[in-house]
Design brief:
Structural class: mainly beta
Number of domains: 3
Number of strands: 44
Strand content: over 45%
Largest sheet: 24 strands, parallel
Helix content: under 10%
Distance between the termini: 36 Å
């Protein structure tokens, strides 16, 4: 949040305070707003919450009227708190003083209680100095916004706090890192991680105080002190990794010869485990699927493949050349409109809450291989031709030319489990028209496995 930090005005003067709130994360977020006004000089109010799309900004305005009494001072504080991660907050403190501007002009020895620049306006506003970007290398020891940048081979001191953008190379952290993407090959060691972290590299020896870490490799000792019950999902664990205090979800794959130790963790239902051992106070919410190298109490691991929870969408596969090949995979899925049962074909309005999700039972020959989960959609507005797009890792829409070689990952899976759960969309649909949704996985050799029967959604007003 940026804006004014000091206001000097004449008695009974009025003005408007304008602050700018930015969402530096790669996902839409809701921020709760609070205002403290010890002198009751503000004559309006802010909304209780404000929604901001990823990397978006908005102005917040507060009307202000000064009292008639000379020399009065007031402190106004505005705080924005992320609902995604309550540890992410921004606070602006504005000092306001009533002065005799005429006396200041005629008597050079007169000054307000704090030194500052004053002119002949009813108000003088002293703006805050703000760092608008992070240096892209070297040492960082302050708060900065990394939005739209790539930091490479940097050191973050205990006074550093960065948000947004991407990290590359080898990075040492003693501060805070929030809402970033870790690029392939990058290694970030130490410090505190918060918000949503999309990881395609390696994170080591850190404290997690955020919402979600997804993908990539974790190493060393990882502890969780998140107030929002942080989730780590779909990760590989380096040999002898120790994880404590988190929620684990999806595909959690360690090293069979040096399994990762899980302590005081909660494992969510239908997760896939391999190369891990259970320590103290591990909670399993329902059965999980276990691969090789799992050291767990009896009854934890499901003995058989899970029964599909969703309608069968049939399954097809193609090789790198686009030719059909046989597969033993199976794709299931559909759409839930409000609280109705899941269907493969549904009608929804713009006001309905929908969840589009799927399950893939992976071909046994592909289990353990690295793969990209892919989601691609055809969209046809009323009386118009269809267009095609893909969802990327941030859930953003990317144009698609129907060439499988140009697919981009919705999610990166270091090692395919026997079964994979995918939530492709949750919320209200933004447009009317017809959507046909396909999903699946792509192997490193170019093989693509996906549902043959699309999930179909007819959206009306």
């Amino acid at each position: 949040m940026t804006g004014t930090t000091r206001v000097i005005g004449a008695p009974n003067a009025t003005t408007t305070l304008t602050l700018t709130l930015a969402n530096g994360s790669p996902v839409t977020d809701t921020f709760s707003l609070t205002v403290t006004d010890s002198g009751s000089w503000i004559s309006g109010s802010l909304p209780p919450t404000v929604d901001l799309a990823e990397l978006a900004m908005t102005d917040l305005t507060l009307p202000l009227t000064l009292p008639a009494e000379m020399g009065m001072t007031n402190t106004i504080t505005v705080t924005a708190t992320s609902k995604t991660d309550p540890l992410v907050t921004a606070t602006m403190t504005i000092q306001v003083e009533v002065v005799d501007l005429a006396a200041l002009i005629t008597n050079p020895t007169f000054s307000p209680s704090e030194p500052g620049v004053v002119d002949l306006l009813p108000f003088t506003i002293e703006p805050v100095a703000v760092n608008t970007g992070c240096p892209t290398d070297g040492v960082i020891d302050f708060f900065c916004n990394n939005q739209g940048q790539i930091l490479q081979d940097v050191t973050l001191t205990s006074g550093a706090s960065i948000t947004g953008g991407s990290l590359a190379g080898t990075l040492t952290n003693q501060g805070y890192v929030s809402q970033v993407t870790i690029q392939p090959g990058a290694v970030l060691t130490g410090g505190k991680l918060t918000g949503y972290i999309i990881n395609a590299g390696t994170l080591a020896d850190f404290e997690f105080v955020g919402a979600v870490i997804e993908g990539g490799t974790l190493a060393g000792k990882i502890t969780n002190h998140s107030q929002s019950e942080g989730v780590i999902k779909n990760v590989s664990l380096a040999p002898n990794t120790v994880i404590s205090g988190v929620n684990l979800q999806g595909n959690i794959s360690g090293d069979n010869s040096a399994p990762a130790l899980l302590e005081h963790v909660t494992i969510q239902p239908h997760s896939f485990l391999s190369g891990v051992k259970f320590g103290e106070a591990v909670v399993v919410e329902g059965q999980v699927i276990c691969g090789e190298g799992v050291q767990a109490p009896a009854g934890i691991c499901a003995a058989d493949k899970p029964e599909p929870k969703y309608p069968d969408l049939n399954t097809t596969a193609i090789n790198k050349q686009g030719k059909s090949i046989s597969t033993q995979s199976a794709c299931y899925g559909g759409i839930i409109v409000n609280s109705n049962p899941i269907e493969t074909q549904a009608t929804a309005s713009l006001a309905d809450d929908v969840t589009i999700q799927g399950q893939i039972q992976v071909d046994p020959a592909h289990v353990g291989q690295a793969a990209d989960i892919v989601v691609y959609v055809s969209y046809q507005p009323l009386d118009e031709a269809a267009t095609y797009f893909i969802l990327n890792e941030a859930g953003q829409v990317v144009d698609y030319d129907n060439n499988p070689a140009h697919l981009v990952p919705f999610q990166v899976i270091p090692k395919l489990a026997e079964s994979i759960e995918i939530v492709m969309y949750q919320g209200k649909l933004p447009v009317t028209g017809l959507l046909n949704i396909e999903f699946g996985y792509r192997l490193a050799d170019g093989t693509v496995v996906h549902n043959f029967k699309p999930i179909e959604v007819n959206i009306n007003k």
